[in-house]
Design a protein that fits this description.
The chain is α+β, with helices and mostly antiparallel strands. It has 2 domains: 70 residues, Ubiquitin-like (UB roll) (Roll); 120 residues, Pleckstrin-homology domain (PH domain)/Phosphotyrosine-binding domain (PTB) (PH-domain like, Roll). It is built from 5 helices and 11 strands; from the N terminus they run αββαββααβββββββα. The strands form 2 sheets. A 7-stranded antiparallel β-sheet has the order 8-7-6-5-11-10-9, with helices on one face. Strand 7 and strand 8 form a beta hairpin. The termini are far apart. InterPro entries: UBFD1 (IPR039120), UBFD1_C (IPR057455), Ubiquitin-like_dom (IPR000626), Ubiquitin-like_domsf (IPR029071). It comes from Batrachochytrium dendrobatidis (strain JEL423). Pfam families: PH_UBFD1_C (PF25343), ubiquitin (PF00240).
């Protein structure tokens, strides 16, 4: 009986030793610093290559108050919760982009039909609203494109991975914006060509609601040193404008 108990004790001790050795190995694994940008703020999260992406989301949740289920992390594509940091090829100093919908956004989505915002609530930076100027009005008067996504006032949603289509540019041509945040790139596509522009090279972004078209805004991206280089697009759904501005400024 004593011999049997001793054998069992040895097995338990062996398992405990194995677990302790594993924990010790993990604790000795070097940590890397991951920079996560969210809007105009950034956070540095220390993790190991063995940590999962969901661990990164949990750490961000503690810092931002945004639940992991409402987070989308981008680094050379959308990161999956069950990926390890090493599998995602995230290294020390890597920059990860975080996009998220807050609980307030979801509440707004449910109540927006009864509590819509209005362009009349907007404080214009100019004495005259941009949409009333001749150069812009002639495009806006063409009317909202039939394939424009429904615009919603008072709601802020992440930019869809497919981009934002159903827009018009300053020539009245159909335009689509695709933000490849992990590549620091904005793709502006028309029927004729696609321009790939580094987000970091955009000097300024202007956004104003279009009077008479609730739920839609016009946006200008300054691509060069002067305002004459601004690329204008019209009928951008309001629910995406905040995240578009944040993506360019991050």
């Amino acid at each position: 009986m004593s011999t049997e108990m001793t054998g069992a004790d040895d097995i338990v001790a062996s398992k405990e030793s194995s677990i302790n050795n594993t924990d010790s190995a993990l604790s000795l694994e070097p940590k890397i610093s991951i920079k996560v940008a969210f809007g105009k703020t950034s956070h540095v999260i220390p993790l190991t290559g063995s940590n999962l992406v969901k661990d990164l989301k949990l750490a961000l949740s503690e810092l931002t108050g945004i639940e992991p289920s409402m987070q989308k992390l981008l680094f050379k594509g959308v990161l999956k919760d069950d990926q390890t940091i090493a599998e995602a090829n995230i290294k020390d100093g890597s920059k990860v982009m975080m996009m998220a919908s807050t609980a307030k956004d979801l509440l707004n989505m449910a109540t927006v039909a009864t509590t819509p915002a209005s362009p009349s609530d907007f404080v214009f930076a100019h004495k005259t609203a941009l949409c009333t100027l001749t150069e812009h009005k002639k495009i806006i008067d063409k009317g909202k494109p039939t394939d424009a996504e429904k615009g919603v006032c008072g709601l802020h949603l992440p930019i869809p991975p497919r981009g934002v289509s159903g827009l018009l540019n300053s020539r009245g041509g159909k335009t689509r914006l695709v933000f490849r945040l992990e590549l620091d790139e904005l793709c502006i596509s028309t029927n004729d060509n696609t321009q790939k522009i580094p987000l970091s090279s955009i000097a300024k972004v202007v956004c104003e609601p279009i009077i008479g078209h609730d739920g839609y805004s016009m946006m200008g991206f300054q691509l060069g040193p002067t305002e004459k280089s601004t690329y204008w697009v019209y009928f951008v759904p309001d629910q995406f404008t905040l995240h578009i501005q944040q993506a360019i400024s991050w």
